[in-house]
Recover the amino acids of this structure.
């Protein structure tokens, strides 16, 4: 069925979508959230120290990175520009299965690529914590991350983040609004992790952990000498049982320290390290013990 004005809707979404490069990690996407230069994208899209934002008209900017929320995989950028074609956000709580979904992004180097599908569900996804996701039957590819998922009227219902099987997963627009209104935060460790279970002795069974796949140079994790292959077990106060537990332990907006327990090589020996959060350190913090 033809949608009146669909071409104009798609073009406006393209103008509200930006191309993001971060330290040679490949291209990602972002959404112009306000006309005075606020851009929203995924936290994992802007992990590098140098970020470049390119607008639909070819203008390029080095943005200031504001809030980051690894738990929801959101980041807020600000570029020095005005009168930008900002997107309009819808109320994601009103989404219903079967509604049209439109995704715009920059997959595989194709700038402004469009994909359509339908909303599958809105809510938590098994094995991915308690947070809600907009789940859509839309074909995404690397480079779509951080771009908009919109309804038939071109209003943003989510920020595309990943795909699980045949479903695209997007952060609901209402969660993005909450993130923007919360103001700056620095709940950032600088690691990419994946859940795993560590075999222990016969009596102890298996222990949940988060294996570090990547450490961002200059990040709190790097300054604390954490390394790829280390397995995070928890803090001194609480063992991790889900990825959400790490995000919860990092929450805060003031300089502080976090004592982390982890494994490195020898599963029988639990190591501990103090991580400095919420500030830039001129030198390395104490080496992991």
């Amino acid at each position: 069925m033809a949608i009146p004005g669909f071409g104009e809707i798609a073009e406006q979404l393209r103008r509200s979508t930006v191309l993001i490069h971060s330290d040679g990690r490949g291209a990602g996407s972002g959404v112009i959230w306000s006309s005075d230069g606020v851009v929203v994208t995924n936290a994992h899209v802007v992990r590098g120290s140098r970020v470049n934002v390119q607008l639909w008209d070819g203008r390029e900017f080095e943005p200031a990175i504001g809030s980051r929320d690894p738990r929801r995989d959101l980041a807020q950028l600000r570029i020095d520009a005005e009168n930008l074609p900002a997107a309009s956000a819808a109320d994601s709580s009103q989404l219903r299965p079967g509604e049209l979904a439109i995704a715009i992004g920059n997959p595989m180097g194709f700038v402004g690529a469009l994909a359509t599908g339908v909303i599958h569900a809105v809510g938590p996804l098994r094995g991915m914590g308690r947070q809600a996701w907009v789940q859509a039957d839309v074909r995404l590819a690397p480079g779509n991350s951080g771009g908009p998922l919109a309804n038939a009227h071109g209003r943003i219902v989510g920020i595309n983040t990943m795909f699980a099987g045949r479903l695209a997963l997007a952060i609901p627009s209402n969660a993005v609004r909450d993130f923007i209104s919360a103001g700056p935060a620095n709940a950032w460790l600088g690691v990419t992790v994946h859940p795993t279970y560590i075999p222990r002795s016969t009596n102890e069974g298996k222990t949940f952990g988060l294996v570090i796949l990547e450490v961002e140079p200059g990040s709190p994790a790097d300054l604390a000498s954490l390394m790829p292959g280390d397995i995070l077990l928890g803090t001194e106060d609480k063992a991790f049982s889900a990825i959400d537990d790490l995000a919860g332990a990092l929450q805060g907006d003031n300089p502080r320290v976090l004592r982390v327990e982890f494994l490195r090589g020898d599963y029988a020996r639990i190591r501990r390290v103090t991580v400095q959060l919420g500030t830039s350190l001129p030198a390395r913090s104490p080496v992991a013990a």
User: Anything to note?
Assistant: The chain is about 10% helix and 40% strand. The chain has three domains: 6-78, 92-182, 191-277. Confidence is low (pLDDT under 50) at residues 280-289.
